[in-house]
Amino acid sequence: MECCRRATPGTPLLFLAFLLLSSRTTRSEEDRDSLWDAWGSWSECSRTCGGGASYSLRRCLSNKSCEGRNIRYRTCSNVDCPPEAGDFRAQQCSAHNDVKHHGQFYEWLPVSNDPDNPCSLKCQAKGTELVVELSPKVLDGTRCNTDTLDMCISGLCQIVGCDHQLGSTAKEDNCGVCNGDGSTCRLVRGQYQSQLSATKRKILQRRGNLWAS
């Protein structure tokens, strides 16, 4: 029995049409990217220690709007601050101590872990129940709350992993190892592991357990 080997009519045309469409898509993406100028240099870090943010800008070269963002961020200065530096949010509150509020001076203390707006600067007048939003946005690099590395950038809380990268989901295991599997330590009550981050140490202290290798 003879096998039919004749090509199906129209098959080459369909293949050519696919290549043409792919080429147009590629050129379209290239054209879109060409509407932007190159990314500029990174700005100075918002902090000298404790984790801050730096940004880079690019300019739209088209008379029409460009797709995408004109600003990008990255973390920087990811080294622990000396103990005497104090809390970054507390520093921002205390900067208002010499500014009168309703005709009176107050010593302002930080209000942390606000579930509704973690990136506003809310402070409490010492010795009173007066809580005031002294600024709609904290400085870039301020922690959103005291239990994570997530930081405020341009007034919005951004996720930061234990690898100090924006948008990262990396987490420390119970031994304080970033992306670890929990196999490098043993449970010890009443002691702590010196290489644990301050944030991790606070979390473990709240649990009543501290880990040591």
Automatic annotation (TrEMBL):
Cellular location(s): Secreted
Protein keywords: Disulfide bond, Secreted, Signal
GO cellular component, one term: extracellular region
InterPro entries referenced in this protein's UniProt entry, alphabetically: ADAMTS/ADAMTS-like, ADAMTS_ADAMTS-like, ADAMTS_CR_3, TSP1_rpt, TSP1_rpt_sf
Keyword rRNA-binding tagged: no
Annotated protein name in UniProt: ADAMTS like 1
GO biological process, one term: extracellular matrix organization
Gene3D superfamilies documented for this protein: 2.60.120.830, Thrombospondin type-1 (TSP1) repeat (2.20.100.10)
